[in-house]
Amino acid sequence: MVESLLSPSIVTGIRRRIGIQGAPLLSAVFVFVVYILRSARSLTVLGDSAIFVSAAAQAGVPQPSGYPLYTLLGRLAASIPLGSIPARVNALSAVCHAGAVGFMAATIQVVTGSPVAALCGALFIGCSRAFLLGSLYAEAFPLNDLLTAALMYFACGFGPNTEGRRFSGFRACAVCMGLGASHHQMLTLSLPGALVLVAGSQGDTIGKRLLALARGALRWPLWVLFLGIPVFSYGLQFALARRDPAQNWGDLGSLGEVFRLVTRADYGGLFSPHLGAPQTDAISELAAYSKNLWGSVGWLGCGLFAIGAYRLFRERRTQAFGFGMTALIAGPVFSVLNRLDVSNAAGLANAERFITMSLVALAPFAGAGVAQLEALGSRFLNEPVARACAGALAVLPLWFARDVNLRKHLRGADFSADLLLGVEDRSLVLTTGDAANSALVYRCGVELRCGRSITFSPGQLHFDWRVRQLKRRNPDLVLAAPAG
Predict the structure, then answer these.
(1) Cβ(173)–Cβ(155) under 8 Å?
(2) What is the DSSP string of 102-140?
(3) What is the DSSP letter of 264?
(4) CB atoms within 10 A of CB 243
(5) Angle between helices 68-78 and 220-241 (to 10 degrees)
(6) Which residue stretches of the chain have pLDDT < 50?
(7) Is the pTM of the predicted complex or chain greater than 0.85?
(8) First CA to last CA across the chain, in angstroms?
(9) What is the SS3 assignment for 396-413?
């Protein structure tokens, strides 16, 4: 009936549009429903979650390098009158990871040309254990994964048809990099691979590819986008921080302090390992990354990656090299350079948060693996059965991650309340450890349940800005001068 009212060209266009956008949209909606049903409804102390919730609630400054983009988005999420403030900010991670899955599906479809492979490959990564867990509480990594997935799509999704189309692709990549610079420097780990992907879509010869890259990089609007977005984001964060929110790392009061924040001076600099202090050797870091990757996707995922890598390197060598380079740099190389303490179970669980960016880069290999299995299955089974098997394969990780559910997780809120249990008003409460510090920042600064008690960590008193901040907020507090 509908087709009789529309011309054949319009019907063909609608079908083509659904074929192009259907897999990304369907995959994003599906995983969002999965994530939001399992998302934490209260405060958690997983990673730096409580710090990010506190900063989002008051548009503050969480920690170096500032995360202004995430904080502003978190502030918008916190203003939605549904559920508690932590639940709203936790849901932002679900939105970001759902968007990342959608971009992964779009990238896989560009590479393989198969909507089934796009849907199943993206769902497989989106349902993997590490990706699922990272979607359930407030953290910085889901937004970084979204920007990484978008950058990969725009880098390989535009071709050499027209100069205008090429420039629009460069412009989209510049926007992604500008947004990444407004969030965290981790997105630069995907830049080498993105350049390879862009070069792979610019012509047949190396000379043409390099010439297209050079012409695109020299356009001034790209630099305006790339530099203007972070300048605006950090400028807005600087202006909002002048209100002195409860979570205000660096006590921003001058442009010099903003520079210290962006360059992570309190953590040892941009190129310093985690907190400026190497913890373990490279072999242990590689073993921890491999163990977390295996625990997230299992033998099935590793098999899909291997099959897909074989297919892509045979059919689309340049793009396969770009995806592989991104996965290698964002995964094993970053793990070795970051030097997290993975000598115990808690450290290994903490390091699991860092592997999702490499999973985004591995998604095209998973999709290509599904496409290869789909082609093999079509030889022995009819097409609907082969696609049903591929769909079951895509959501199989949910079975292995069935215990990953923070919906009824109340430990963070209980921990925050217990820290001041039995503490009289006008007390001095000294804390240690990231979990206790961040939980009290939320309870005292956002919920305002500390009364007139003073809470802080003596471990931060070596920062001049922290001493200045404490004295300004608590005029009656007397801090002894440090020895020497």
Answers:
(1) yes
(2) HHHHHHHHHHH--HHHHHHHHHHHHTSHHHHHHTSS--S
(3) T
(4) 10
(5) 60
(6) 1-19, 159-165, 204, 206, 276
(7) yes
(8) 86
(9) HHHHHCCCCCCCCCCHHH
